[in-house]
Request: fold
Amino acid sequence: MFKILRKTELAPDIWEMEVAAPQIAQKARPGQFVVAMADERGERIPLTIADFTPDAGSITLVVMVVGTSTVKLSRLGEGDKLYALIGPLGHASRIEPCQAVAMVAGGVGAAPVYPIARAFHQQGSRVITIQGARHKALLFWTDRLASVSQQHQVTTDDGSAGHKGLVTETLKEVLAADTQKQIGCVYAIGPTPMMEFCAKTTEPFGVKTVVSLNSIMVDGTGMCGGCRVEVGGRTFFTCIDGPEFDGHQVNWELLTARQKTYRHQENCAFEKTLNTRTG
Reply:
């Protein structure tokens, strides 16, 4: 069970894995995640379900190598099995009826954005997708996102593909051009600073903005308390109350500080794992 059926390198240190998980595939919805373990000594790592195919009994995960656990996952190959896979977890995205929706995908955020954009597309909403990355080599799933978008724009920090600049610049232009106020919601998923500044960009326009805070989660069950986040002056657990929240209500300063709490220990473990030879 949980066999890796297909593994593809999408970009440097970014891997797509199709995993056999029939029961999870049947129940998965956009916005939800799974908790995976590479081996019996590995930590529990939350990963957004990037795609799911109930007929094939499989789900798709996109893994970016950023620490010890993701290194272990990246070293597994086709035919190997995950030690554990639990899900689907978290609240699904609320695909509410609206004339248009803007999706902002930063870096690896392209993976969790895709099933949400597809759901809005399937219900008949006009989907505007802004996909950004530091440079061209880090872009992936552009064709997938374009296939579920009436408008798909690419931005790169260095101008190596699409528009040179930040996704927030393009987002501001899109909202300013929406004179008839058809865009009912903005979804922004990517690095924490990107999501924060997307929320700040949309605030003057008064457009509802949803962000996904998966990156702060640890065990994914609410027991460790590591994913506490302040939203609207109240404390929530991202894994059981989210992972999606109102971006205008998130205490971004506190969230950023919490993500740095164990940075030293994480870096030490990461370096040790990279220096460990695979068997």
The chain is about 30% helix and 30% strand. The chain has a mean pLDDT of 90.
